[in-house]
Amino acid sequence: MILTILGGVTLGIWLVLIFARGGFWLARERDTRDVPPLPEQWPEVIAVVPARDEAAVIGESIGSLLAQDYPGAFRIILVDDSSSDGTAEIARELRVPSRPSPSGEGLGVGRLNLIETSARVDGPHPNPSPEGEGLALEVLRGAPLAPGWTGKLWAVSQGVALASDAPRYLWLTDADIAHDPDTLTSLVARAEARGLAMVSLMAKLRCESMAERGLIPAFVFFFQMLYPFAWVNRSTGVGAAAGGCMLVRREALVAAGGIAAIRTALIDDCALGAALKRQGPIWLGLTERSRSIRPYETLASVTAMISRSAYAQLNYNPLLLLGTLLGLALVYGAPPALTLLASGWPQWLGGAAWVLMALSFQPMLSFYRRPWGWGMSLPGIAAFYAACTLLSAWQHHRGRGGMWKGRAQAATR
Question: For 123, left (φ over 0), alpha (ψ -120 to 50), or beta?
Fold first, then answer.
């Protein structure tokens, strides 16, 4: 009787997730759907890129920004957050890629107006980018980390201050993200057509190594389960974003209190998405235009990526941690256990829940071009993520929570 009830509960949970959770698993919210019309005028945009020891990826990342075919005014601020590996030096050597003429012939290498600036923390910076002198890339030497800030947000805040009040939009993008040339055009068109406070794209994560192929698609699946994109994109309800690519309306950011309003957030993208949704509508979707180029070659590197912020998602609360682990055991562990170990109704109910689980994973597996049969492995993947969450709590207990590039950034209590 108890096993039958358990099977019925797990099946009921999966029916609710599939039919009453915003269709999160369908992966329908994409930047290729409901394409908006192009605006008549293109507003000014400034990209802000925080970077700390990103020599391995900064060339491709900043290079993709320099290659944007955006019709309006656009410049880039790279905030070098005390890098020790030559990140800024690599950026300085970049050049604007050649652009084809209407006849198909190259126009040669464009002019790059490279500006060097040291950080100021006493107020906004003037706009130092002269008009008409080519695409501006500004390399800002960041100030030392201020108390009460996470490293990334401190760097972003300095870039935003340097941008001052010139642009209508700020493009907050990470140093490990590469963008197709039409990415910014697509972002601005959507924001202008719908009057959005933010447009955010979930960059397509790298999925090449064995560890990535096995574990990365589930990362996005679980994220969508926590923050159903359809709910994020409606006028009320949950607010969230994906930090690799966020186009932010500057006035909305100011009204929300600026970056300082979320300065302690470890999951800064979702914190910013929630803050901006209080200022106006936002939009979040999947994309193949923006791609993460940071490799996670080993199981250990994927573990570090997940554990860095997993406990922060639970607000560093031990009771929420316990509830989460029990919930994962019920939702993901019980169906295969009943299917393989029970008989009769418990086995049938558990099997049905396992099949629904596997089916719900199929759209994300398809997006990442993974075989359909991998859906049956979701219970094992969930167990791995549960272990990473437990590890995250242990690291926080040891004072090493949110470890990134030598900094323990998680809040302490």
Answer: left
pLDDT tens for residues 216-249? 999 999 999 999 999 999 988 899 999 899 999 9
CB-based contact 98:108 (threshold 8 Å): yes
Predicted TM-score (pTM) of this structure: 0.89
Inter-residue contact 198 to 250 (CB < 8 Å): no
How far apart are the two ends of the chain, measured CA to CA in Å? 44
CB atoms near residue 1 (< 10 Å) = 7
Q: Is 376 exposed, middle or buried (0-12, 13-18, 19+ CB in 10 A)?
A: middle
pLDDT band at 166; cut points 50, 70, 90: confident
Other C-beta atoms lying within 10 Å of the C-beta of residue 135: 21
Q: Residue 45: beta bridge partners?
A: 74, 169
SS3 per residue for 165-222: CCCCEEEEECCCEEECCCHHHHHHHHHHHHCCCEEEEEEECCCCCHHHHHHHHHHHHH
pLDDT, mean over the chain = 89
Pairwise CA distance, residues 249 & 271, whole Å: 16
pLDDT in tens, 118-160: 554 444 444 444 444 456 899 999 999 999 898 899 999 999 9
The first and second tokens of residue 34, run together, are 């409901």
